[in-house]
Amino acid sequence: MNPDIISQTITFVKETLKDAEGGHDWFHIERVYKNALLIAKEETCDLLVVQLAALLHDIADSKFHPDASGGDETLGPKMAHDFLEKQNIAPTTIAHVVAIIENISFKGGKQEQLFYSNELAIVQDADRLDAIGAIGIARAFNYGGFKNRAMYDPSIAPNVNMTKEEYKKSTAPTINHFYEKLLLLKDKMNTVTGKKIAEQRHKYMQGFLAQFYAEWDGVL
Question: Sign of torsion, CA 43 49 50 51?
Fold first, then answer.
């Protein structure tokens, strides 16, 4: 195995995502990586798997690689696998990292998670923490602007019962995304540390929404 695998992976991710949308760029990866290291301190885990999965989890986010289903979910795992194989990482470690990448995302609907490990729990929480709170709000509106979506349209109600396919193809206003994903994440956290941090960030989003609606309605 390459003894400098973490630094080599960071270099690879930075180069691959150099032109990425601002909410899914290297800095998103870096924040998730830091969150994962923080959570891992309190959990029993294979730290190398956690580090590699956190760094590679969004190497090719399906949202930015459209196909007939709304996004190619195979490209990211394949890119991660091919990179790690070239670094002579153990096949069992590669398989674990790839399984995490394949199962980390919130996909809407009532999707059953078919794979579980402590390492997935850690990286999934780390990724979800970056989708809520102040940065989560900023990322949501950055992506909405990137896709030229309305900030809010009172005539379009959130759809919290979307199928996976509907979720992937949704063009709803950004505010709807709070109800369709962001406000749901607090109760989907896996780890003690993740749950604790999520509680505070969830409250921040609730305060933001209250302020947003008050300003929208001209009462503040």
Answer: positive
Q: pTM surpassing 0.85?
A: yes
Own/partner contacts of 206-213, CB < 8 Å, gap of 24 or more, are 208/137, 209/175, 209/178, 212/152, 212/175
Q: What is the DSSP string of 4-42?
A: THHHHHHHHHHHHTTT--TTSSHHHHHHHHHHHHHHHTT
Tokens 């760094």 label which residue?
Answer: 55
When comparing pLDDT for 66 and 27, which is higher? 27
pLDDT bin (cut points 50, 70, 90) of residue 29 is very high
How high is the pLDDT of residue 55?
Answer: 97
Alpha-carbon span 59 to 92, nearest angstrom: 20
Euclidean distance between CA atoms 124 and 193, whole angstroms? 12
Task: List, in order, residues 6 or more apart from 7 with CB less than 8 Å away.
Answer: none
In Å, how far are 1, 50, 100, 113, 161 from 117, measured between CA atoms? 23, 10, 8, 11, 27
In the chain, what's the furthest Cα-to-Cα distance?
Answer: 61
Task: Return the residue matching tokens 């997935």.
Answer: 120
The half-sphere exposure of 94 on its side-chain side, counting CA atoms within 13 A, is 16
- With CA atoms as reference, report the closest residue to 185 among 171, 199, 164, 168: 199
Q: What Cα–Cα distance (Å) separates residue 2 from each residue in 8, 50, 86, 88? A: 9, 17, 9, 7
Amino acid identity, position 54? A
